[in-house]
Write the structure tokens for this entry.
Amino acid sequence: MLSALKLRDFRCFQALETEFAPGVNVIVGPNAQGKTSLLEAACVLLRLQSPRTSTLGPLVRIGSVGLVLDGFYAGNHLQFYYSSRRKKLALDSVEQRSAADYLKIGRVVWFSNADMALVQGGAEERRRYLDFVAVQLDASYRRHLRDYETALRSRNRLLKQPGAAWRQIAAFDAPLITAGTALTEARARLVEELSPHAAAAQLAIGGAAGEALALRYVPGVGDNFAVNLEASRDEDWRLRQTRVGPHRDELALELGGLPSALASEGQQRTLALALRLAQARLIEARHEALPLLLLDDIFGELDLNRRNALLAHLPSGAQQIITTTHFDWADTAAARVFKLENRLLTTA
Ligand SMILES: Nc1ncnc2c1ncn2[C@@H]1O[C@H](COP(=O)(O)OP(=O)(O)OP(=O)(O)O)[C@@H](O)[C@H]1O
Ligand SMILES: [Mg+2]
């Protein structure tokens, strides 16, 4: 569990220090007090990555140079410093050159009221969903993803450069194919593993029988990356961008055999929750340790049945940090309740 968390110059907080309880922690506060930022800090401390942004720059408090996160998770001391010029990591007070050991310490599942975008948004949202859990399950995934993105960026930059020769552009094909194939294989495996968890979660939190949720991975490399990349040469040239590869992957969602776009608002909401729950269950199944569950403001929009079903379906025993503007829906006795107001966090 996350027992202690300290932040400095993180989002709206100049300095904040707190301790969490095992089990359920609830943070109650009006809008714009920093509830989401606090959960984000817990996530970044453990995973060095924010579910809200692709770069860490926006997390640094306006007007300061760098942010500091410091905390204890499962007895390990984690410290992270980030500025636009420098990143520093320490695990149990030993500075780390690579993030590999640091990232083995804790795993996170992030639920948010913005999760509807998983269903309603573009394919990019669903790729990010897959990546967020894949890097937590498979240490080599992060490297493949980085290698792929680097090769893709370089190839696209050359495609946009007037006068670049095809020979120069094609020099990036080999690293693109190597990393891209590894990503494609890993994502296909992941979707296969997530599917039964997602279907079970959908049913548990309000899906009706006959409305089974199915996940289908549609690889952007087609049937053969190398062949299709070569075949797309003229099109790449004309559009000045790489048109084939895992950056065009889709995770197709179907409910009772119909595309999720046709599902009702309520069905889509359940579906988004089911996708997050599936991540939690898969991490639980693949590891001895439970993930830290961060639930950002998701209860306001759920009816009582769904709320209770969701709480019942979370991996039991996992630590939860829940934010909300109104706390009138749960059993207070079982939770540690905090109040966040004027940048101050106090136990209620
Ligand atoms: N880098 C930053 N520097 C300073 N302030 C920031 C930074 N990033 C965000 N903020 C501010 O932090 C405040 C708190 O944002 P946050 O999203 O955490 O609030 P919240 O309590 O979750 O609100 P809501 O209930 O509306 O979701 C916002 O007013 C925002 O303008
Ligand atoms: Mg918020």
About this structure: Residues 1-107+292-348 form a domain with the Rossmann fold fold (CATH 3.40.50.300). The longest strand covers residues 2-10. The chain has a mean pLDDT of 93. The chain has ten helices and 15 strands.
